[in-house]
Amino acid sequence: MAALDYLTHRGFAARLRGKRIALSPASRLTDDVRRYVKSHRLEILAELASNDGQARKMHWQISVKGKQICTMIGEPMTYGEALEAARFRWPEAEIV
Question: What is the pTM of this model?
Fold first, then answer.
């Protein structure tokens, strides 16, 4: 079951508010649902973000001059966002 399916089956609607997840109706939130959202945050963000037509990944291979130097792992981001983040630290970086 997808992360959003868990929430919709329990009567919640989720949407992005900046980089935060907003659930409605908020009056029905329980501690269990809050724990679920906290532990599945990245999955929920990825599913919500996927609705905008841009592909996102949570990990990107970074290479400089053809040599892989590390894997960047974090919140789901587009290719452009990941490249910008990598080039902030390594100006000649490429990502896959």
Answer: 0.53
